[in-house]
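Students often ask why we bother encoding 3D structure as a string. The short answer is that it lets us treat folding as translation between two languages. Here is a chain of 190 residues written in the first language.
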Amino acid sequence: MRWLLVDSIDVVVPGERIAGRAVVELPDTLVGDHFPGFPVTPGVILVEIAAQLCGKLVEATVWERKQVWVFPILSIVQDAKFRAFVPPSSTVELDAKLLEIRPESAMCRATVKIGPRRHVTMKLVFVFDPEGASADGDRDFLEAYERNELRRMGSPWVPGPGPADPPEGWEARWDELKDRLPRQPPVPRL
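And here it is in the second language, the structure alphabet:
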């Protein structure tokens, strides 16, 4: 299973807000026991979906301000309120606002909804290296990966050219680097 949980990004206003959607399709083996006879999407999955979307807002904000690509890591979940169950195979709408940004961290408020009803609200705190360093030191790979993810999700915000852009462009660089992604084994049937 890949952890690419956000399906689309509909709005990006760097420094302010982001909105998108996700279809919560999880294998029955994952949600069947959560809860027997009444399956619901685990809260941790909903937090992860919101974190993935908020991370894109943090990336866009830092890029627009400093032309540095940062890689936000979720570090704190605050005030998470699970107000209503999210059934499996639901399409959820996500909306997040940037509350605060510092050179090495950011805080967002996120809401997960189905239609007009709020199902989950939370504050999420992220940390990142202000210079854009990645854990394994391969910044090119992560930047190409993130740019490709924005394209996959149909993001209306696209980062402009930056000081470290490869001369052949990011699409060509991604074609060169994407084979480094781990291959996904088939999901075992229980």
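Translate back mentally: Residues 185-190 have pLDDT under 50 and may be disordered. Keep this in mind for the problem set.
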